[in-house]
Design a protein that fits this description.
This protein is α+β, with helices and mostly antiparallel strands and 363 residues long. The chain has seven helices and 13 strands. Helices cover 42% and strands 26% of the residues.
């Protein structure tokens, strides 16, 4: 007996979901397991394991405490009204052009401050001859809330204008406890296998993306999905693939226009990377863009009533995760757990709006 054609689109959609899910898991495994660089040569830090206490480190004491226990540093503050931490600086002439930093960090009930970089932070910062910080792309890791030990690693490119470079471990205007161990700062050497594997993975995303786009356009012709949804998805894709420099420039333009109308919108700060938090510390223009795009997409799809709500929630969640993982391939961009949360808040708001309007219309 020939298969029922009416069931083929649903079966095909399930296959698309499974393939996209597997690709997301593979991408997550690749970027969490492999690095483009690794540390080479001697340790650049003095007393990185804190066996000599805080010898070799410069302290900035605020309202809180800084201490060591074996190879572990602990910074804690109950008030969060000042910067509290340690730093170690080097002459730029004595450093290679690329540095590889590795560290493990743990936070306990860190409550962020007013700005989006007010939390527990580890930074490598270049300073020019006048002592001004060169903050472009300097961030390494920032975290708030609570989480157990996490190993982080990253590349630092020595700025051309830098006279010195400082590793800074701070609680910036935040309350809570911040712990660090297993610090390592060495010259960075590229892993030869990383570019080809990354290229194969990127090719897989392109092939599957074309497949999904073809299916979406076919579904639009057959079911009348609407060019509105296609346009929203295209705009979202452009936002995902936008390089960091263009993204920041665009946000600054939006911030300036909003200021003319008395709106206090703020561009995303470029001063953090690897921010580990379930929710954003600050609702910047980029976060509002995430919220709005998924709100519009979800409300439109829920309003059509052709999709089971749970299935639609699952698909939109997978799209939110995929959009973050795709940013790992874009220069200057990185994935952020908080952005997935913001996307799903937009989905929930879209569902709530449609559900409320339907209940109101039936009265």
């Amino acid at each position: 007996m020939a298969p029922d054609a009416s069931h083929q689109p649903d079966h095909f959609t399930r296959w698309q979901f499974v393939v996209l899910l597997l690709l997301c898991l593979l991408t997550l495994f690749f970027f969490s397991r492999f690095s483009a660089f690794h540390g080479l040569g001697p340790q650049r830090l003095h007393n990185p394991d804190f066996h000599k206490g805080l010898n070799g480190w410069q302290l900035q004491r605020g309202s809180g405490s800084i201490g060591t226990l074996g190879p572990q540093l602990t910074i804690s503050s109950k008030r969060g009204d000042s910067n509290l931490g340690i730093s170690q600086c080097f002459s730029a002439d004595a450093l290679p052009q690329q540095l590889w930093l590795e560290v493990e960090m743990r936070v306990d009930r860190v409550i962020p401050g007013r700005l989006d970089w007010h939390h527990a932070r580890i930074d490598l910062i270049g300073y020019d001859a006048q002592g001004r910080g060169i903050y472009d792309g300097h961030g390494f890791a920032g975290s708030s809330g609570s989480h157990d030990w996490r190993q982080l690693e990253g590349l630092f490119q020595l700025p051309q204008q830098a006279e010195r470079v400082c590793l800074e471990i701070y609680l910036y205007h935040s309350r809570g406890s911040f712990e660090v161990r297993n610090l390592s700062l060495r010259e960075a050497e590229a892993n030869w296998f990383y570019p080809p594997l990354r290229g194969v993975l990127l090719l897989a995303w392109v092939v599957i993306g074309v497949w999904l786009l073809h299916s979406l356009l076919s579904y639009q012709r057959e079911e009348g999905l609407g060019w509105w949804i296609c346009g929203l998805l295209l705009v979202s894709l452009l936002g995902i693939l936008m390089p960091q420099e263009i993204k920041l420039w665009l946000e600054l333009q939006i911030e300036g226009v909003a200021r003319l109308f008395g709106l206090a919108l703020q561009a995303s700060s470029s001063r953090h990377l690897n921010h580990i938090s379930l929710l954003p510390a600050q609702w910047s223009i980029a976060k509002l863009g995430h919220l709005l795009s998924f709100f519009l997409i979800s409300s439109t799809l829920f309003a059509r009533g052709r999709f089971a709500p749970l299935n639609l929630f699952a698909v939109l969640f997978l799209l939110a995760v995929a959009s973050e993982l795709l940013q790992m391939f874009v220069p200057g961009r990185s994935s952020n757990l908080a952005d997935v949360s913001v996307d799903m808040i937009g989905v929930l708001l879209g569902w709530a709006l449609v559900s409320s309007l339907r209940r109101f219309s039936f009265r």
